[in-house]
Amino acid sequence: MLLEKHQELITELLSRYPVKRSALLPLLNLAQREEGYVSEAAMKEIAKILDLTPPQVYETATFYTMLNLKPIGKFHIQICKSIMCGLVGSDDLIQWLQNRLGIRVGQTTGDRLFTLSAVECLGSCGTAPMMQINDDYYEQLTAEKVGRVLEDLRREGTSPLKSGPFMFPQPAGSR
User: Fold this and answer.
1) With CB atoms 3.0 to 4.6 Å apart as the test, which of 80, 93, 139, 164 could cross-link to 127 if both were Cys?
2) Residues of the chain where predicted confidence (pLDDT) is lower than 70
3) What pTM was estimated for this model as a whole?
């Protein structure tokens, strides 16, 4: 399915690497972008493309938390739970989101709109607490701001409150 649909892109990806196996992560990412997650069928196809065994592909896919092995919602909410975000309230935001969405961490809403995950550092400690939704960062979060983001996503499919990644920290007291 991947090879059939993306032959030109896969050929180009393979040409970037002197060793075929090096294209594993880009191909897993392609599979996820195509289906919303990395399916078993995609892993088997990638194994054939790269002359690997399916377990070799699976061990890589399960190592990286950025790869999803089951379907997720349209908006994947990843709340940072590292020490910096934790010190400024990420645990409270996770609880707030669970209550607001009616799901627990690791679950997807019944309408398949939101999946909630708690993840390790997303590299924005100076603007904590923060979250990543799909490819967008949201920083200096409060429950009110997260509520606005959720409503924007429901209504528009995007939110003007996205900030980065890597918004520069602001001086203390300017939040």
Assistant:
1) 139
2) 164-175
3) 0.79
